[in-house]
């Protein structure tokens, strides 16, 4: 289900768990500890349900991926806080997880989410362009 086809009322807990691949216990714990609270509506007593937005789902999936990659919950919390404060469009960015690092690549910037949002020096070299330039130079030599 794409982000533009989300239900107006949001997603209920069991739906969120199924979509993200987490247990209800995890979802409940994350909401109670303010890791990620539902942005549409909180549960307010018996008979009410939390409602999560599509953006909430994306953030929950990022948290799950971080945990699956072996990053502890404390660092996952720090990473998601940094991701939120970066103002980046989560859907357009790339998250790179390697051993004990979580990097967010957006445009020309790489942000280390576990180092408090430190921007890393980044030089992008499109290899396809390098290959075509070398091939063209070789062809010119033969001419």
Task: Describe this structure as you would to a colleague.
The structure is a single chain. With 143 residues, the chain is an alpha+beta fold. The chain has two domains: 1-68, Multidrug-efflux Transporter Regulator, Chain: A, Domain 2; 88-143, no CATH class. The protein is 43% helix and 13% strand. The longest helix is centred in the C-terminal third of the chain and has 16 residues, at 127-142. The radius of gyration is 20 Å and the shape is elongated. 20% of the residues are buried.
In short:
This protein has 143 residues and is of the alpha+beta class.
Low-confidence stretches: none
Separate helix tally = 5
Helix share of residues?
40-55%
Overall average pLDDT? 75
Query: Measured on Cα atoms, how large is the radius of gyration?
Result: 20 Å
Biggest beta-sheet profile: 4 strands, antiparallel
- Silhouette: elongated
Query: β content, as a range?
Result: 5-15%
Listing every helix as H and every strand as E from the N terminus to the C terminus, the arrangement reads HHHHEEEEH
Counting DSSP E segments of at least 2 residues, the number of strands comes to: 4
Classified by CATH, the class of the largest domain is: Mainly Alpha
How are the SSEs ordered, and which strands pair?
Blueprint: H1 13-20, H2 24-32, H3 54-68, H4 73-86, E1 94-98, E2 101-106, E3 109-112, E4 118-120, H5 127-142
Antiparallel strand pairs: 1-2, 2-3, 3-4
